[in-house]
Design brief:
The protein has helices spanning 21-34, 46-49, 72-79, 83-96, 107-115, 131-138, 153-165, 191-199, 213-220, 247-264, 316-319; strands at residues 8-12, 38-43, 99-104, 121-123, 144-147, 171-176, 202-206, 225-229, 284-287, 302-305, 332-333. Helices cover 32% and strands 15% of the residues. The chain folds into two domains: 8-44 and 80-264, Aldolase class I (TIM Barrel, Alpha-Beta Barrel), CATH 3.20.20.70; 273-338, Alpha-Beta Complex (Type Iii Antifreeze Protein Isoform Hplc 12), CATH 3.90.1210.
């Protein structure tokens, strides 16, 4: 039977290493054990992201933000992954048989990641309008995965055209809601097949909801990749810990996504091989009272019951009033050769 291909499962480390290389490597180990296909880092420094200012728009004052009271600069200082850690993290990924790659946030990050020969690139939602960055990444010729958070249809069209015009031949868009955490009702998974048809590319999900429901549901809509933030333990804290998955949750996601992909199958109205043994327990027509040759079949002596060794129930009305051509014991499945 044809089955839907299991999506690429990406564990996003982000800043959940809490500035410890040992913890970062432990996250890789735990993700690999959970069965993910890839670990993704983020490659930037506070200086490549923003200005060292803590006032006005450079300060997070939103009372509903996970990062309220932080300046952008200090937040990125806490969250960034030291560039010298990238190689040992990627090396650990190779040892464990999973893919390691990253999100570059400026051209210097792309140059650095090219030196490490990463297999592909991710563009974050907040950078999906940074066409110079998209152009530079596309020119590497490597596969690109781009989150669609906050982007209008026109902006998505701009990024897709820019990527393709600059050499990208393997593009995956991720439906994304850039809210941390995101709500299920704001996830709009039905956009996935529409986006796939509109841009003729693979489409997946960058999921910031809690739990696995949205991610598993996306399989039914053809998600090619699923990205979830990952940590060893939310109790340990960290910039993204509140909406990150723990190891057992990630393992469950991997299992359920595989199950969902297998369950998609194909359009089928035939008896499945695994169903054949069950056919004997369908309802069919049985004689339920002893009958003698010449007796008439009535609603009293014929019933539709299990097991499935008599005639199909659709002949019930046809057989009523017919006479039997032999003696028939109670509990005998009806056959046409028993009828006069």
């Amino acid at each position: 039977m044809q089955t839907t291909k299991k999506p690429l499962i990406i564990a996003e480390m982000s800043g959940n290493h809490n500035q410890s290389l040992e913890r970062a490597l432990a996250i890789v180990d735990a993700a690999a054990k959970a069965g993910v296909d890839a670990i993704k880092l983020q490659t930037y420094t506070a200086d490549t992201m923003t200005l060292d200012m803590d006032e006005g728009e450079f300060f997070i004052a939103d009372k509903n933000s996970l990062w309220k009271g932080e300046s952008l600069y200090h937040l990125y200082q806490k969250a960034y992954t030291p560039w010298e850690w990238h190689k040992p993290i990627f090396d650990r990924c190779k040892e464990l048989g999973i893919m390691g790659f990253s999100t570059p946030f400026d051209s210097t990050a792309v140059d650095f990641l090219e030196e490490l020969d990463v297999p592909c690139y991710k563009i974050a939602s907040f950078e999906n309008i940074d066409l110079p960055l998209i152009k530079k990444v596309a020119r590497t010729g490597k596969p690109m995965i781009v989150s669609s958070g906050m982007a209008s249809l026109a902006e998505l069209d701009d990024l897709v055209q820019t990527a393709r015009e600059n050499g990208c031949t393997d593009l995956t868009l991720l439906k994304c809601t850039s809210s941390y955490p995101a709500t299920p009702e704001g996830t709009n998974l039905l956009t996935i097949p529409h986006m796939r048809e509109l841009f003729s590319c693979k489409v997946g999900l960058s999921d910031h909801t809690r739990g696995i429901g949205a991610a598993v549901a996306s399989i039914a809509l053809g998600a090619a990749a699923i990205e979830k933030h990952f940590t060893l333990s939310r109790a340990d804290g960290g910039v993204d810990s509140a909406f990150s998955m723990e190891p057992e949750e990630m393992a469950q996601l991997v299992r359920e996504c595989e199950t969902a992909a297998q369950a998609m199958g194909t359009v089928c109205y035939e008896v499945q091989e695994q169903e054949k043994k069950s056919l004997q327990f369908r309802r069919t027509l049985y004689i339920v009272e002893d009958m003698q040759k010449g007796d008439m079949i009535t609603e009293t002596n014929m019933r539709c019951i299990r097991p499935g060794l008599g005639l199909p129930p659709k002949y019930y009305d046809v057989l009523l009033g017919k006479k039997v051509n032999r003696d028939i014991r109670r509990g005998t499945g009806l056959r046409w050769d028993m009828i006069e």
